[in-house]
């Protein structure tokens, strides 16, 4: 019964700490730690420093399921991103459904370039083009998203500098860009630090959402390629920070007038 309550609490708030769970369930922190260890052993959650993340608490479907969602919007975003940033000689690319669509569009370009990525599907797509040199990063393989993560991945990323880093996102809010998966979020945070320019590819369904790991706040080095103009606090924060908004079919349109 207590295990079910812990999982329900983490589903509602994935950032809960051990002491918060103990207070909420009115038991000791030692009891919560034992429960978390048992749930971790049977694969119901993943332990983190000071707490845990429910295995079902990723705020979005798996990669294979997401590929069937917002297909037209994702394709338009990908083609726009290739038009605007596809001439870069060195790219660092994240993974995910929108990024896979971007990789398929980039694959058909005729320019020599180097791509660094932790995402196996991205590497496979781009390797079909002999003009694209693909560097697949080392690390621990995450089978659901098919990306690598861990200390070796971060150390490898720190060796490189690229013109542009391009990622997808689980959430876009006034606070910034966020990722639903903890381990992947750590890699994308490091990935953003390797590039002079950061480009985020995300459709309007991510607006107003805050996922588990905050990757970055908005700044003038970030461009968002999306299918619809953001509104409310998200738009105002991006405009004040100088972040660029790029829409399909109107590649010159952005929030900063650049």
From TrEMBL:
| PROSITE patterns linked | HTH_DEOR_1, HTH_DEOR_2
HTH deoR-type domain residues: 1-54
* GO terms for MF: DNA binding
Q: Can you tell which superkingdom this protein's organism belongs to?
A: Bacteria
Keyword annotations for this protein, in alphabetical order, are:
DNA-binding, Repressor, Transcription, Transcription regulation
**SMART domains linked to this entry:** DeoRC, HTH_DEOR
The record's listing under InterPro entries reads: Carb_Metab_HTH_regulators (IPR050313), DeoR-like_C (IPR014036), DeoR_HTH (IPR001034), NagB/RpiA_transferase-like (IPR037171), Tscrpt_reg_HTH_DeoR_CS (IPR018356), WH-like_DNA-bd_sf (IPR036388), WH_DNA-bd_sf (IPR036390)
Protein's UniProt name: DeoR/GlpR family DNA-binding transcription regulator
Which species does this protein come from?
Albidovulum sediminis
């Amino acid at each position: 019964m207590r295990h079910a309550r812990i999982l329900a609490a983490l589903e509602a708030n994935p950032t809960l700490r051990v002491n918060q769970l103990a207070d909420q369930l009115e038991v000791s922190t030692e009891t919560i730690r034992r429960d978390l260890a048992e749930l971790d052993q049977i694969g119901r959650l993943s332990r983190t420093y000071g707490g845990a993340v429910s295995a079902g608490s990723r705020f979005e479907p798996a990669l294979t399921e997401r590929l069937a969602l917002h297909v037209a919007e994702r394709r338009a975003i990908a083609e726009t991103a290739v038009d605007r940033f596809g001439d870069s000689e060195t790219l660092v690319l994240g993974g995910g459904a929108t990024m896979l669509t971007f990789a398929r569009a980039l694959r058909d370009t005729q320019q020599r370039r180097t791509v660094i990525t932790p995402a196996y599907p991205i590497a496979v797509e781009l390797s079909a083009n002999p003009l694209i040199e693909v560097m697949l990063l080392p690390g621990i393989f995450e089978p659901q998203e098919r990306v690598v993560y861990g200390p070796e991945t971060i150390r490898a990323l720190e060796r490189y500098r690229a013109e542009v880093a391009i990622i997808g996102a689980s959430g876009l809010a006034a606070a910034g860009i966020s990722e639903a998966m903890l381990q992947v979020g750590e890699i994308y945070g490091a990935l953003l630090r390797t590039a002079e320019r950061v480009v985020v590819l995300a459709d309007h369904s991510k607006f107003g959402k805050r996922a588990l790991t905050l990757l970055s706040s908005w700044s003038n080095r970030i461009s968002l390629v999306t299918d619809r103009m953001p509104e409310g606090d998200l738009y105002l924060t991006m405009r004040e920070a100088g972040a660029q908004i790029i829409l399909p079919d109107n590649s010159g349109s952005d929030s900063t007038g650049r």
